[in-house]
């Protein structure tokens, strides 16, 4: 597997940064890793040697990632380190979806992409993933009664949602309301709301990259359902009035637009310009305006689509989030190669 000298240089540079300014984000690293990485391309040689074998150290973590996001259908309590045909197929599908070079191997490019912040809703196999019978991933707008045009929303008490964040959420709802041309939203108490917003602290290792997710809850002894939108309470969120987005921060409005889109019936899109793209790319840390395809998809669910109206092109913020993606990438690479 050929990797450019430029990328090797950048990886070494990122390591130096990680051992200084980014050390707080990668507590599991030690100075010995730096010597191992920089000595005679040890990291590259070990990756190459492992890919020539059917069993790869720490492949189980990658399998868990692929399973959590719908690429592997294995219903098991733990994953082994064997690179079997099912895993190769899952890697290829992931590479195809995200426009990466399709090899079926766990390349640096794949590890880098897996390290980017992303939505917790699976990309595929939405029928899997919940053991609780009254909880499900969003699958279209069938969760609320047919013909219902007004959805209520509320904020989780004690979730410390600031007034500025509430305004962002209300503006996001308004933007989607205009796009559907049918659905409107009204604020109410949290317990009575159709859509519930809240901040939570996510638990497992895969969720290190998750910044928000959405699911549907069916209330017990009742036909009523509610849509739950959960934001990561540990993130350093950026609001529209902030002057700059730092490398370790996540734009709140971008995540809000994406999650509301799920509740209105949209699946993930693999168009990098779409607000429904699963991953926050370093080149597009802020993405809140609907593309032509976003408008078309939502209006096909609710109204007759008119291609001459309602089109607002996406934009990219000039800041960079490479610091965040770099720290996560290094975490993946080190855990994968040297644990």
Assigned CATH class of the largest domain: Alpha Beta
CATH topology of the largest domain: Collagenase (Catalytic Domain)
- Largest sheet: number of strands, sense, barrel closure: 7 strands, mixed
Question: What's the helix count?
Answer: 10
Number of strands: 9
- CATH architectural arrangement of the largest domain: 3-Layer(aba) Sandwich
Shape: globular
Low-confidence stretches: 1-44, 305-328
- DSSP helix fraction: 25-40%
Cα radius of gyration in angstroms? 21 Å
Provide mean pLDDT, rounded.
Answer: 78
Q: At the fourth CATH level, what is the homologous superfamily of the largest domain?
A: Collagenase (Catalytic Domain)
Which structural class is indicated by helix and strand composition?
A: alpha/beta
Total individual domains: 2
